[in-house]
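Now read this:
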Amino acid sequence: DEILSSNIVNVEFCPFCDFPANFNNSEDRTLVCLNAVCQKESCRKCRRESHIPLRCEELEQGVDFETRKRKFIEERMSEAVIRKCPTCDRKITKETGCNKMTCPCGTFFCYVCNAKLPEDNPYRHFSNARGRCQQDTPLEQLHEMAAKRAGLEALRVFNERNPESVNVRAPDINALAGVKKKAKLTTTERRR
């Protein structure tokens, strides 16, 4: 009642525990409850447990588990190759060049780890001996690794949220990530 009477805008309540959450981004489809006991993710539109990447209508139509699993994994893998500026949250995807990104807001950040880089010398981040980020990484390799990690994690999360779908066929994550399969050498080729 205090929150409602305080005229705070963009407040929504968790449908599972009524814990309040402030929403600055109206595009977010999911409400993540910050109540330490609850911590459930729910759909802001239908107020059911989060079903992204499915739309509410698709959920009501009863889309099969295999399709839901594939869509969920594909969505997470796509998100893995998109970075957000650590200052303004603008979505950015690298197409060419080194791993020092410059957001239109003026922030420098690392494409590999998403760390905000120092304004006076953003390249210092890449010369740090303890750092794990290289200034140049083949883009295809970087995106494949990120997509594969995200795909495996998405599969784990989907199966955890939907235990009845564990035995449902999952998509080939390597194929979705674009991972190149090493050609096996035939016996004749190995002898040469």
Notes: Residues 76-142+153-165 form one domain. The CA atoms of residues 27 and 44 lie 10 Å apart. The radius of gyration is 21 Å.
